[in-house]
Amino acid sequence: MEVAAGAVAFEAATTTLEGGAIAGYAIAQKTMPLKATFTQIATSPQTSDRSSLCRLGHTVSVVDGKAYIFGGTTTEAICTNEMHILTLPSKSSETGTQYKCVPALSVEHQKEVPPPRCYHSATVHGEDILVYGGKDDDGLSLQEESKLWKFNTKTLQWSCLQYAEDEAGSGHAIYGHGATIQDDQLVIYGGVRSTPSEKQFRSPNLITLGLKVFTKRVAKHAMEPATCFPANLVAIDDAVYTINGDDELSTNVRQINLEAAMASRPATLEGDRGIKEIAIPSNPLAPGPKGPRDGAALIPVSTGHGRHYLIYMFGTTPSQAIVNANSSTPGKTSQASSFCSDAWTLQIPSSDLSLSGAKDKARDVLGMDSGSWSWSEVEIKTDTGESEHEGKLHPGPRAFAGYAAIDDRSILVWGGQDAAHNAVGDGWIIRFE
């Protein structure tokens, strides 16, 4: 019995040591870099048709395994207002993408459908895709300041939500803005307004449109206008994020607490306004994307257990021609811009209540870097599986594509503008691990 008891005690001690070793190993494991696999799932031929899927300045939204491509412009003209629908392949097979094109149809009690547009926003809310803003074929803001279009992915019909007009508003919408959903609100930030009487006004407004209670709110204290075009906006937990900056020395990530930013009381400090600025390192030896970008993607991903990242990838160095050209196809005018093909992750601090938050606290106690607010370049893995699009392993430099999250760890990219300033029409799934 004594021998047996000793064996049990030894086994328990061994288990404790093994458990501690495993926990220590887990804490010591770095959270970055993430690895990504790029898989091309579809291509579209180059045509001069306005319905061509070779486009830029469009949006792509993913709902229940289907991608919905809307709006944008070809190299020559604004695209038509059909909805292009792709059935995405499953994880086990990256081939066999199905496609159909749906004309713009309204619900029975309404006669309106959204006119063609580019540089609008599209966000997913349940089974609906919410489209806001944009500009027309003349390069002017659409006269839709308080209209929100809703496309139902079950009925394939459009309806229009009309919000109260601003007293001092021009009646024109913005374009090149950022939009995201938080707490049943559509959050809109930045963008540009261009009218026959008002050329290229950069909006400093932070706006929310209620989706259950149909109210419109505008932050009482205007923020700095977004300088990147289009502005990006991402919601993670109780904050929204955007990237802003005029040059490499002032580029930053902006974290916004929505309710604090929308509060009516006067604000004297940035913190009082619910805004936190996190500078992107300008030192060429420090990891991080250098300088602000136009036409880049800012997408949230998660590796589970409360660990969140912002993916910042592609885009082109800002050119005033992009914003100032009075045209729906500005890309042809910006020959001096430099296109990017890299991808970066920014690790967002984890909630204290999550497993990742507990791991980060343990790292802090041990004097180890948790990785919060740090950048790392994504490592590219080669897709060794069979593909019907063999030969191309990466989209290459591009900007103004359509970007959307498929799930917590994968992103869809469609189209955009390549380094030769041509509209492209291919689709890629990027999976992170």
From TrEMBL:
It comes from the Eukaryota. Keywords: Iron, Repeat. Pfam families: Kelch_KLHDC2_KLHL20_DRC7. GO terms for biological process: glucosinolate metabolic process. This is Galactose oxidase.
